[in-house]
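Observation: inputs received (chain + flavin-adenine dinucleotide).
Thought: call the complex predictor directly.
Action: predict_structure
Action Input:
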Amino acid sequence: MTIDTANRPSRKAAGERPDFLVSFEFFPPKTDAMEERFWESIGKLAPLHPRFVSVTYGAGGSTRERTLRMVKEVKAQTGIDAAAHLTCVGATRDEVDAVVRGYQAAGVSRIVALRGDPAEGIGQPFTPHPQGYQNAADLVAGLRRIGDFDISVAAYPEKHPQSPNWAADIDNLKRKLDAGATRAVTQMYFNNDDYFRLIDRARAAGITAPIVPGIQPIHSFKQISGFAARCGASIPAWLEERFMGLEEDPETHALVASAVAAEQVLELVDNGITEFHFYTLNRSNLVLALARLLGYRPDSRA
Ligand code: FAD
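Observation:
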């Protein structure tokens, strides 16, 4: 990866204004207890003034109403820009367009546009709805026809598991950006070299849009390993070794998790990366710590 080191931001000293842009991803809570944690975490992270907070969309649109409600409420209660995730799974174009118009009417102007996965998981081939958007690029084009949205799309440091090869995967990413997306956000990954290689491949293919690393703090190694397996991200052996035997030792687990995430983020900073997307899983502690390492303090403006 070629980096302009002349004016890049560096690790920040306490109190300095951050040169970084961060966004935080949440999922729509299912129960009252989960909703309480959602708002507690939003309450802690909102004062950092992220570029946006995004709310995921359950497989097959299963969280349609909840995603819309949370996105609207985040915006109303914090004033922070909220982004709604949206997928094409199991819906006609008209149905998806109706959801988009609902976002538009609610003043939501940021969308994370995704294909989504079949109900059986990423291991199964994706069959688009006969009257539906065919893939994320098709969805981005549809969004552009409806309104002037800020659109993020997905990118894959380890290649999308269903892509036959890297050329196909980068072509697909380019199609999504050429259709009108503003940026790509990566799937979780734990080896920064994979991310740097993705950037090199994308730039070589003429992609100039930002490709923001998606950082997954490891609140629970067991849970994150399960998520990684389901989305086709790998867990390097060195990472597994770091958490080995810590199942019954939450304190050490939390310290190791914090060190692992800090190492990943600061290596990116040292390589000139200035935008980050954090997968919060509706928890704030590790993300707060990482934002602090980037120089964020409550009410510091990005
Ligand atoms: P696409 O970019 O459409 O492509 C996926 C695969 O299909 C690629 O392999 C591509 O090469 C292939 N492909 C696409 N078009 C064609 C074509 N015309 N011919 C042949 N092959 C083609 N999932 C959810 O359900 N809800 C969420 O809220 C959600 N949020 C996410 C947020 C981020 C930042 C990321 C990285 C992923 C998220 N996902 C979410 C997961 C996502 O839905 C899956 O990774 C899905 O498998 C692919 O989605 P995509 O948008 O990348 O698909």
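Thought: report the result.
Final Answer: The chain has one domain: 21-293. The domain at 21-293 is CATH 3.20.20.220 (TIM Barrel).
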